[in-house]
Amino acid sequence: MKYVYPAVFTQEGHSYSVIFPDLEGCYTCGDDLKDALYMAEDVLAFTLFDYEKNERPAPEPSEIGSIKLSAGEFVNYIVCDTIEYQRQHNNKAIKKTLSIPEWLNELAVARGINFSQVLQDALKAQLGL
Known about the structure:
This protein has 4 helices and 4 strands; from the N terminus they run βββαβααα. By secondary structure, it is an alpha+beta fold.
């Protein structure tokens, strides 16, 4: 899932703090602007992945023009992809039990096929990933 939310950046010396006004508890900081942008994408993906995992509806993002700013603040849209976030941070292998016909198992074993890789590839294809 791809999302776009506005984030408010506040410069504090050379570093930046970042808050997402539409998402409670979604904030971060960075040593510089580049780091703050990276951290903002990461915390946004983490927060929205948690929404998805807990089957909570994500709030509608605000329009940039509706966000009130204080002196020294600016707003920037941050884009994230929660599927990509899961790929990078949630790769723990789990066991699955499945059944296939004996003849198919014997043929695949004889050809040295990696069952786990075939299942992963097939699931990705089925899910359009």
